[in-house]
Amino acid sequence: MSEKYRIGATRSPADAGRTRHGPLSPAEARGAVRRVLSEQARTRGTTCGPDVLSDALLVASELTTNAMLHGGGVTGFDAEVVGQNLYLSVSDRERRRPVTVDPVDRQGRHRCGGRGWPIVCRLSRNVLVSDLPAGGKCVTAVIPLSAQCRHPVGGG
Question: Of 148, 1, 143, 5, which is closest to residue 85 (Cα–Cα)?
Fold first, then answer.
C-alpha cells in the first residue's frame, strides 16, 4: 500500500508536453487536500480528527492565497501523505520569501492582513521555502497527522 498521493504538479511521461497547474484557488486547494486525506483514510484505515483537517485546510488556503496575492499566482500545487505527515507544496512566480509583518503599523494602526504566514508557521511542523530553477519559489509545509489520526474502534 502506498503512503504517497500526489495531486496537481505531478506529471506522467504522457503529460510531459502539457502544463498542469493543479489547484489555482484556495477552494480548489482545500478540495485537493480533502481528497488526499480521504484517500489516506480509505487505504490506511485511519481517520484524522477534525482539528488536523481544519489545520490542513487552513494551511492550504493561506499558502494558495499568499501565492495569489504576493507571488504572481499559483504555478504548482502538491499534497501528499508520507508516513505520519501531510506535505503541502505551493509554487509561485516570486522569489521573495514570505515575511511576518507586525500587525500594527508605525502610527499604531492595525493592519489588515499579514497574519497568513504566522498561521502557516504555527500549524506546521516544518516549513521549507526553496527557489525554483526556472524562477519563483516553492513553499512546503509539513503538517503532522500522527497525534490526531487513529484507527477506528474495532479497526487494525
Answer: 143
DSSP for the chain, written as a single string: -------SS---GGGTTS------SHHHHHHHHHHHHHHHHHHH--EE-HHHHHHHHHHHHHHHHHHHHHSSSEEEEEEEEETTEEEEEEEES--SPP----SB-TTSPBPSS--HHHHHHHH-SEEEEEE-TTSSEEEEEEEE-GGGEEPPTT--
Residues 1-54: tens digit of each pLDDT = 333 334 344 333 333 333 345 677 999 999 999 999 999 888 888 778 889 999
Which residue, among 63, 80, 75, has the nearest Cα to 118 in the 3D structure? 63
pLDDT tens, residue by residue, 111-121: 777 788 999 99
